[in-house]
Design a protein that fits this description.
This protein has 287 residues and is an alpha+beta fold. 18% of the residues lie in helices and 32% in strands. The protein folds into two domains: 66 residues, no CATH class; 205 residues, Alpha-Beta Complex (Fumarylacetoacetate hydrolase, domain 2). The longest helix is centred in the first third of the chain and has 11 residues.
């Protein structure tokens, strides 16, 4: 199933090129209490919501996908986890241009470790990316987004994929410079997720998906998730060995070569096989 948030915070199900209005499925969620349990309430009760959506779909109103304004398919993630230098061609790219990428981080992915992006940086494709520091380089990094579906702590690689709720297209936007990754990647709008969540049961093999990003119609990034240095299952197990993962937590699983600068007025076209496509506009902050 493809589940989205769209337009005026409406819940939608995407079927055959149309978005069906199924916000009434939210009535199936337990009443929230304060203090709330960690995690995204919808993702934590995804099976319940899916059952309610199935009941609503036959009579639900719909619009074409092209007319929908897609928000992030995860509304309230606790954490956004980044996986650095996870494609060999991007490792080579960074080593060859230390003036841009700096030499602050050395060693392979396991030495560098995972990093966190602020949850406040998350937006959907319709929100676009707002460049806060136009005098500095801001780069696109397209990735497969992995959404955790249930609480995970110290899970094994063998069981890790059973903790995945679904997948989405992710953009890990980055300001280049000498500061810590988490600072440079946590600007408002510098984590884009969309256009919808494809539930895990619809993806036969998330480790064999073609990904592609273009800017203004020119392809810049193209690879397969099969080329990851550390696969999705190991990423989940590794992350869960350091901190508990909660429903709605997002793992941005690493980018391939071809990262590059974007400027106000640019439009990024992102596509991942079996998930879909999204268009993300770039603007100056405040514009």
């Amino acid at each position: 199933m493809k589940i989205c948030w769209y337009n005026q915070q409406q819940l939608g199900a995407v079927v055959d090129g149309r978005v069906y209005e199924v916000s009434a499925a939210l009535d199936a969620l337990p009443r929230p209490r304060y203090p709330a349990a960690p995690g995204d309430l919808l993702i934590a009760h995804l099976d319940t919501v899916r059952a309610a959506i199935d009941r609503l779909l036959p009579s639900a109103a719909s619009i074409p996908v092209a007319q929908a304004r897609f928000l992030s398919p995860v509304a309230n993630p606790g954490k956004i986890i980044g996986v650095p230098v996870n494609y060999a061609d991007h490792v080579a790219e960074a080593k060859a241009d230390q003036a841009t990428f700096t030499d602050r981080y050395k060693g392979d992915i396991r030495e560098q470790g995972l990093f966190l992006k602020a949850a406040s940086s998350l937006v959907g494709p319709a929100d676009g990316v707002a460049l806060r520091f136009p005098e500095r380089l801001s780069h696109h990094e397209m990735e497969l987004g992995v959404v955790i579906g249930k609480t995970a702590a110290n899970v094994t690689q063998a069981e890790a994929l059973s903790y995945v709720a679904g997948y989405a297209i992710a953009l890990d936007m980055t300001v280049r410079g000498p500061e810590d990754r988490s600072l440079r990647k946590s600007l408002d709008s510098y984590a884009v997720l969309g256009p919808w969540l494809v539930t895990a049961d619809e993806i036969a093999d998330a480790q064999a998906l073609e990904i592609r990003l273009g800017v203004n119609g020119n392809v810049r990034q193209q690879a397969s998730t099969a080329e990851m240095i550390i696969g999705i299952a190991e990423q989940i197990a590794w992350a869960s060995s350091y901190y508990t993962l909660h429903p709605g937590d997002i793992i941005m699983s690493g980018t391939c070569a071809g990262v590059g600068q974007v400027l106000p007025g640019d439009v990024m076209q992102c596509e991942i096989e079996a998930i879909g496509a999204m268009t993300v506009a770039v603007r100056a902050a405040g514009g």
